[in-house]
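Hey, sorry to bother you again with one of my protein questions. I've been staring at a protein lately and its backbone has me curious. I owe you a coffee for this, so here goes:
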Amino acid sequence: MNSNYLPEVIQRFEYYKSLGDKTFEQLSDEQLFWKANVESNSIANIVRHLWGNMLSRWTDFLTTDGEKEWRDREGEFADANANRAEMLRQWDAGWNCLFDALRSLTEQDLDKTIYIRNQGHTVTEAISRQLAHYASHVGQIIFIGKMLRGSSWKSLSIGRGESVNYNAEKFSQPKQ
């Protein structure tokens, strides 16, 4: 196993958290709770779901099933976040649980078997599963934010019409 795996995966999770943080900064309190229709989730719903998932998956990560008995997955999609401060508290608590668990791992832990809903995964597989899951939900958060902000949206990556200049700058530098 690549000895850089854990630092690299932590960096990737930090990147996705930062995209969510930058999206929240652009939105009003009202926009965080906006839903396109009754079947849709608001950004606050998605955050609540991520929070529940992260606490369940990463608490006692190596020793207990990732689907904890105390988790209320269905309740994560209810309109329960009271305000921005509560939503951000949940967002940070979930990510902190994940980062604490990842930072406690050693390279020797990566091939151990853990369980999620009684299904065995190597630690590496479980990390990959959660990385994909969280990235997809952060993508939803960004998409909703971008829809709500419209032309006021500040790009989180390379803005429209900026690719040529961005690439010219990158390719003018030595390879890293």
